[in-house]
Amino acid sequence: GTPQKYDPTFKGPIYDRGCTDIVCCVLLVVAIVGYVVVGIVAWTHGDPRKVIYPTDSRGQFCGQQGTPNDSGLRRRRHAQRRRVLLSHQICVSNCPDRYLTYLSAYGSRAPSELEYYRQFCVPEFTNLQKAPIEVLKDKECPAMIIPSTPLARRCFPAIRAKKGVIMVGNETTYDDGHGRRRNVTDLLEGAKKANVVLETRQLAMKIFEDYTVSWYWIIIGLVIAMVASLIFIVLLRFLAGIMVWVMIVMVILVLGYGIFHCYMEYAKLKGEAGSDVSLKDLGFQTDLRVYLHLRQTWLAFMIILCVVEVVIVLLLIFLRKRILIAIALIKEASRAIGHIMMSLLFPLCTFFLLCLCIAYWASTAVFLSTSNEAVYKVFNETACQFSGQTCDPETFSTSNVTKLCPDAQCLFAFYGGETAYHKYLIVLQFFNIFMFFWLANFVIALGQVTLAGAFASYYWAFKKPDDMPAFPLFSAFSRALRYHTGSLAFGSLILAIVQVIRVVLEYLDHRLKAADNKLAKFLLSCLKCCFWCLEKFIKFLNRNAYIMIAVYGTNFCTSARNAFFLLMRNIIRVAVLDKVTDFLFFLGKLLIVGSVGILAFFFFTQRIKLVQDTAPSLNYYWVPILTVIVGSYLIAHGFFSVYGMCVDTLFLCFLEDLERNDGSAEKPYFMSPDLKKLLKKTNKGQPDA
What we know:
The chain has helices spanning 22-45, 49-52, 102-107, 111-118, 132-137, 185-268, 279-282, 295-318, 320-339, 346-369, 400-404, 420-423, 425-459, 472-483, 485-511, 518-552, 556-569, 571-604, 622-660, 673-678; strands at residues 78-81, 89-92, 100-101, 144-145, 148-151, 154-157, 159-162, 165-168, 173-175, 181-183, 373-379, 409-416. By secondary structure, the chain is an alpha+beta fold.
């Protein structure tokens, strides 16, 4: 590309600008209107209760007021699976707690047995004197019931293992209701997945318990991370050079201590029983504390930390000269943020808008997925030509099906539909995902172009801060919305298309996992890699294009081209200087997260004697520790993202400054004195600003 020429009228972000990419702006508005319509239609037809609450074999909700199965009871009800084949479901107040067959209940001398059994029959069953053979033939009651436990408002066999023996309700066999004794292992296959869910539920409950007793300390840890990030940012404002070197040394020391701690734990476990078991032999365990008793775990941690330590030290050795220029750029960014302090709070606005996008997408997805209608199918135990066909429960008793297949029943099968709306539900879900990506990327782009406009107004002010506008952040935000909504929509649209393609590829990869087509898997892996790289490149290009839009007010394509050519003309500076600052910011986030994480580790494992009795007793101490670490990273990333955008903006303006000006009286440099000193540049005939 052609370098920018000197323009005596250019004094920073151009105020006399026009609307750009109007077509994309109109397209975004139309898409948002369509998205609202889709949401209204989904909320009209959808019913989230279908996801939460179980139904009986007639498709009616269990235990919901205003439904046929409510009966005025407010107790939570469960869907009882009546047979091992899971073909019938009824709503009950409580799960069965004993083994019992209908024949034994009917023949029992105690009337309470049959009365207890009646609650597991269809609601219409009232004739307790009816012959058992007729009751079972009409499928009014199950042939037998077994001890069950509630799980997600459903009843599943209470299967447990005692000394390697599978048992249900302290029994190893049961009467199937037809006079035959069967082994409880016959129930195992039908409830296998339920047991996995039950174990997951138990794990989730323990994690929830940990959160209930540690949430107060988690919030304190996150507050500490926020205060540490804020102090770090303020110190960068005044002591950028010292803070960067302190940060580098601290990161090396923190990693060094991590290596030392892992070695001490590794050495302490030597000779202990069971400590030499390999991770492969142990397999997956829900109690992650088990892994901390293995020497191999600490050896793996130590190797990982050693590799990270060596990589960081080597990078520092090779980039030591460029770090000086990066420090000057960070100092300039600190000054810019010091004059525009509101920029540190602006990510909260972006975060709020992103939360709105996520909430709208999630609620629309749930309502769309639950907007199907109840579909009824013909079920029978003998051969029948109508088996599996759709039926209407209201007219089923008078249809020809009951005449040709006397044992056939019209039961609820699943939620679906045959209307045009139901046929295109998958299209609406796809549109929902696409609009989520588009709007989320638009919100992020709006935040980037706003910060870029504010920081660019600082750089191109010859006398800082006197030549800066009164409210640079508000001015940049209003310019972005008034003139460049279309350009932001254009850039976010391109990124959204690539992200949707990646989602489709992940879906296809998930579907092909069970297939043996190695060629298809290879091609799919190549496509996933290519689109991942493409997404990263588009994000990089968009970010720099938004800076050009904020400064010059040009359309997206022009801005992207100018930014790309400007970076290509200074590829060495981009590859080294800009990435060095990114690396330094990463070290800053690593320092904050590592420090808060180590503090949380010592606190929750009760290794700090001063507050040893204050730390809560936990099932898994890694739950609050990981929460604090992830939360600290997000908080630190929020603060440093402002710094990152500031550095990127100043860096692009710095490259423009070098091309536009030569330091003469007519073309003075706008860069700071520190940058001019490092680059051996001067403004001839004028004092440095």
